[in-house]
Amino acid sequence: RGVLYGDLNGDARIDGTDWSKLSYYLLTGQAGLGMGEAYTIEAANADHQAGVTIADAELIKAHYNYTKTINQKLSSQGTGTVGL
Q1: Shortest CA distance to 6 belongs to which of 33, 35, 45?
Q2: Is 69 exposed, middle or buried, given 0-12, 13-18 or 19+ CB atoms closer than 10 A?
Q3: Quick check: helix, strand or coil at residue 52?
Q4: Are residues 6 and 70 in contact, defined by beta-carbon separation less than 8 angstroms?
């Protein structure tokens, strides 16, 4: 299945729920709320850089506030395309 970067809960929307889920994970270090699943980790890597960081959470928030766009054409490794 394809990955919608920024959509951590798989509902085909990038919104505050996704940002909240990633922020909780980053602040607590707990893998709750599905953060251990391969899809969720891949989707959380919204900036396609190494690892999941606060920069990904900031990009997700900016995306749903319409101030930035998440590139859906790159994989987290920075090459290739993703089928949605």
Answers
A1: 45
A2: exposed
A3: coil
A4: yes
Read off the pLDDT of residues 31-75 as tens digits, 9 standing for 90 and up. Answer: 655 666 888 889 999 999 988 999 999 999 999 999 999 999 877
- Say if residues 43 and 3 touch (Cβ distance below 8 Å): yes
Residue matched to tokens 């602040």: 27
pTM greater than 0.90 (yes/no): no
Using the CB atoms, write b or e for 34-56: b if 16+ within 10 Å: ebeeeebbbbbbbbbeeebbeeb
Q: What CA–CA distances, in Å, run from 83 to 40, 67, 75?
A: 16, 24, 10
d(CA 28, CA 13): 24
